[in-house]
Amino acid sequence: MEFSDRLHRLVSQRGTPLCVGFDPHINLLPPALVRRHLDKTGHPLHGHIAAVTEFLIRILDRIAGRIPIVKPQWAFFEQFGPEGMVALQSICSEARDRGLLVIADAKRGDIGSTAAAYANAFFASADPAEDAYSPPFLADAVTVNPYLGWDAVSPFLAKNIQHGVFVLVRTSNPSGDDFQNLSVDGDRVQDRVADAVREWGAGRIGECGWSSVGAVVGATYPEEAERLRDRMPLTPFLIPGFGAQGGSADSAVKALNRDGSGGNVNSSRDILFAYRKAPYTRQFGEDGFDRAAEAACLDAIHRLGEALHRK
Question: What is the pTM assigned to this prediction?
């Protein structure tokens, strides 16, 4: 089954396009949780890894049945070295065991042979005999950087139709303008990338009508999202920037259909660290960080639903 069909089916079942990003900022973790693991392990690295793992697993237990997909951000685990990657491996596995799809937010992008090696880390081949070993970080999709062109993307698409990619097109950060808005013969760079994404995904259209080659398009630029939707009518969008980065629910759903199809809206800090802000601090306190995350998740689902009804 095409990745796009798997994603579309799960979004329909859960009734929301919300994606929760797993970006475990060390300085935002509950202090008591960190202290407990530091005291237990007696080691700064081991203690922080253990705190991150407990933090995310407890949140997974609360939100897994409510959303279709999670997006672990690789950098927050790579900073811990090999032991952090072991923790990431475990968290990805736990998420998939709970029925969630996993987007590996690793933003890979390199020449063909190197991209193929990256793909081997995330995706299984359609024919198991082609794999010398199981992918250590088995994911359903990966974010990729298109700067090196088709060479950087094609190895991921060649592995197995059940896996997909999300190509960086219009990112949510302000300095994305440095390159993405440069003019190229009357178009912008992001427009040319969008055209390439549309072409790359033309042969990977699922029964749902959407491609398995998606595009990262930030909620912080809603007018551009609508314009990019015109250039990529069958491309699912991964939409960061909702919440802590300033994107509203109405902005986030600009490029989605009213039924929520056409992409996934990501929220990370607003949900993971809801225990730090009102009204969740008063309701749940620091020890109830997982219940606060669940409440914030439900609130995000509600706000996105209302925004979709307003379309």
Answer: 0.95
